Amino acid sequence: MDCIFCKIVEGTLPSKKVYEDERVLAFHDIKPEAPVHLLIIPKKHIPTMNDAAAEDLPLIADMHRAAQQIAKEQGVAETGYRLINNCNPDSGQLVYHIHYHLLAGEKLGPLNGK
C-alpha cells in the first residue's frame, strides 16, 4: 500500500505531531490554509468515510474526542474551529485515508466563498 498517512503512522515519513494515542494521530498540514491547520487521522487505514464500517464508529468517535482535546490545547476551542472531512474526488479528497482537517486561528469565511 502506498498511503502517505500510513507511512506517517509507521514513522517512515516525518510529521509535526500534535497528538497521538493508540488509535489516533494528529499533525500539522504541510500546506496550511489557516493559522491552525491540523490533520486528524485514525491509525487504521480506511480509504474514505464511505468505507467506514459499523465497527469503525468507535474509532470515528475517538477522532472527534481528539479534535476536542486538540482544539483546547491549541487555544481555539472557545473562539471556534472548523472540522472537515472530504470524501471522494468531488469533495477534494486527495489522500485516501480518512482524515479531518481542523482549521482555526482566524475568522473563517463561508465554505462556498459567498
From TrEMBL:
CDD domains tied to this protein: PKCI_related
Family annotation (Pfam families): DcpS_C (PF11969)
Name of the protein: HIT domain-containing protein
A GO MF term: catalytic activity
Cross-referenced InterPro entries: Histidine_triad_HIT, HIT-like, HIT-like_sf
Active site residues of this protein: H99
Listed PANTHER family: HISTIDINE TRIAD HIT PROTEIN
HIT domain mapped to chain residues: 4-113
